[in-house]
């Protein structure tokens, strides 16, 4: 199981990526939350030589497949073949109201989106005429002036973020990787995610080895009581935030915590000034320990392997807990 890290909150992504590579991490990821992940990854690619650099995730439906095909092509060139294109759908409200882009059945649109990307790349690599015609996207024009120069690397792998069964099956059918959501558990991965992934693999005549599964997971730990308390508070808040979202309710329901989802959602839509703290207070130790590996850095590597080895291929510690980077060096050594 490879250990990755997030660059999302880095003020200097080049320096952060270089440090992470030096510490032995296998890959770095940037998410599209309040920044453009590709600018972060460009800086990271130029500052490193070994780690993979991936978007985890970029919002696919905020862009045309052609726009994204150019960006991914360039990042694959600048990284010398180390780029991973991680895509997600976001939700309807954000796609329509934040990005002002069309929304429709997300799994069907994403299937077509991946097909369009690969058709465009095939035109650039194999001189295949561009003749992609779908329900949502049409790409039928590519002239020499707008064809990028070839480089020494194949088009980047496409990883797909998925929570529900439709998107997870699609990852098995059409993607090179599955980006599991942080709001998941060992049981949900084992009983829901991986069986749906296998259904997609079977449909496409592929094997589990054809798809890399990545998980940005919660870890609660620290080198003293103050660090442990800060990490626990941060993770409780993140679990509460995700748990209030109806799209993630099936994870809670699998564990018999549907009522918790109702309470969290009701609080999230209330006008209480202290609603976020009140939501975090609902995440008790049992819920925390189910969603997060609770272990100090010296033991966290073994705990991660015990929980996720054989289920996921890559793991990254969810950022924002306030624990210094060097505290996790024992985890890097344990997973190396």
From TrEMBL:
GO terms for molecular function: oxidoreductase activity, acting on paired donors, with incorporation or reduction of molecular oxygen. This is Probable F420-dependent oxidoreductase, MSMEG_2256 family. Pfam families: Bac_luciferase. InterPro entries: F420-G6PD/mer (IPR050564), Lucif-like_OxRdtase_MSMEG_2256 (IPR019919), Luciferase-like_dom (IPR011251), Luciferase-like_sf (IPR036661). Residues 13-313 form the Luciferase-like domain. It comes from the Bacteria.
């Amino acid at each position: 199981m490879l250990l990755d890290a997030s660059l999302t909150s880095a003020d200097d992504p080049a320096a952060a990526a270089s440090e992470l590579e030096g510490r032995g991490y296998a890959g770095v990821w940037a998410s599209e939350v309040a920044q453009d992940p590709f600018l972060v990854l460009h800086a990271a690619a130029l500052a490193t030589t070994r780690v993979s650099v991936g978007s985890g995730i970029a919002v696919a439906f905020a862009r045309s497949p052609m726009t994204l095909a150019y960006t991914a092509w360039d990042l694959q060139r600048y990284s010398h073949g180390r780029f991973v294109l991680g895509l997600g759908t976001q939700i309807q409200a954000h796609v329509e109201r934040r990005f002002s882009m069309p929304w429709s059945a997300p799994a069907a649109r994403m299937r077509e989106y991946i097909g369009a990307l690969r058709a465009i790349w095939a035109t650039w690599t194999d001189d295949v005429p561009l003749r992609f015609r779908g329900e949502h996207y049409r790409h039928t024009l590519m002239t020499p002036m707008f064809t990028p120069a070839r480089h020494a690397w194949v088009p980047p792998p496409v990883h797909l973020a998925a929570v529900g069964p439709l998107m997870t099956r699609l990852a098995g059918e059409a993607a090179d990787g599955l980006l599991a959501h942080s709001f998941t558990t060992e049981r949900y991965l084992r009983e829901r995610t991986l069986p749906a992934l296998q259904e997609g693999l079977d449909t496409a005549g592929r094997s589990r080895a054809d798809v890399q599964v990545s998980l940005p997971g919660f870890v609660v730990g620290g080198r003293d009581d103050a660090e442990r308390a800060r990490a626990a508070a941060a993770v409780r808040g993140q679990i509460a935030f995700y748990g209030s979202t109806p799209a993630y309710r099936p994870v809670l329901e699998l564990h018999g915590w549907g009522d918790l989802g109702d309470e969290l959602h009701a609080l999230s839509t209330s006008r209480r000034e202290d609603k976020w703290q009140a939501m975090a207070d609902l995440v008790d130790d049992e819920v925390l320990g189910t969603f997060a590996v609770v272990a100090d850095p010296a033991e966290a590597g073994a705990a991660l392997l015990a929980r996720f080895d054989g289920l996921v291929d890559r793991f990254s510690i969810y950022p924002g807990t306030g624990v210094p980077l060097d505290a996790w060096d024992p985890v890097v050594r344990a997973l190396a």
